[in-house]
What does this fold into?
Amino acid sequence: MKEHLKECLRNFFIIVTCINLAMFVLGSIFQKGQQFGYEAFLYPLIYGALGSIPNLFMVKKEEPTLKQYVVRQILGALLCMVLLFVFMFGGKPITTDIMIIAAGVAVSVIVIFIIVDVVTWILDSKTAKDMTADLKVLQENAGIKE
Amino acid sequence: MTSTDKVMDLEVSIIAADKNEYVKIGCHEMDERISEIVKFVKLRQGNIEGIREGDKYSVPIQDIYYIESVDDKTFLYMKGGVYESGRRLYDLEEVMEPYHFVRISKSIIVNLMKVVSIKPALNGRFVCKLRNEEEVIISRKYVSDVKKKLRGESV
It folds into this structure.
C-alpha cells in the first residue's frame, strides 16, 4: 500500500508537469488571447488530482501482467477523460468549439499517460543501473567473477 | 602497518580423498580481513536436501539459481535441472539469507550471485537476468528490500 501511494504521488507530479505543458499547447492553439487570474495556477493541480484518481483506486493484491497493465492504463485514461470532461464542460451545451477542445483534451490525456510511463521507465532504468552496479560490487566482494 | 598491508603466507596441500577438505587460518587477531575470508569460505559451503524423481540429493546452496514456491510446493532451480524441497519458502528464506539469497516476490527467492543484470519492467517492477539466461521478476513490494541487500544492509 505504501509503495502504491508513493507511486501515485510520483505520477501526480509527473501529470501536473505534463498538464502545464498541455495547457500551454492547447491554450496557444484554441484560446490565444485568453487572460487568467491566479486561480489558473490551481488548474494543473486539480486536473492532476483528477488524473490520479483512477490510479489511486486501482490497487490490486496481485501484480498485473503486462497485458493487464496496458488494459488498466487504457481504462484509467478513459476514466480520466470522463472526469475532465465533466469538470470542464459539465452543464454546458455541446458546441463545435467544445467538441474541438474536448478532442484536444482527449489527445492530451493520452499523451500525458504515455509520458508518465516513459518518465517512470527512465527513472526505473536509472534505479536498475544503480542496482546492477551494487550487484557487481557485492559479487566482486564475494569473489564471484563474470 | 595496517591489516591490509600484512602479507599472509598461503599454503595449499593435496590431501587424501578419504579425508575431509578443510581451510585453516592462522592469524594474530580476528580483523576485518580475516572475517572476509571466513565469510568467503562459508559462502561456498552448505547443502540442502533436494528431491528429484523420488531420489534425495544433497544440493550445494551456491549452485541454486532461485527458489520458487508453486501450489504449496517449493522448487530449487539449478543449472542441471529442478529439485523439489520439502521445506517451505519462508523457512528457506531464513536459511539462505547469509548466502546472498533475497526474496524478490511472494513466491521467489533469488541467489544474487547468479544474477547478471537488473532491468526495469513496466509498473515499477524489475527483471533479474540470471546466468542461465532465465529471467525472474522483482515485485514492486520487494524492490526496496533488494536494494538494501545489494548495498549489504540488513533487510
User: Anything to note?
Assistant: The interface with chain A takes residues 36, 40, 43, 100, 112-113, 115, 117-126, 139-141, 143-144, 146-147, 150-152 of chain B (CB under 8 Å).
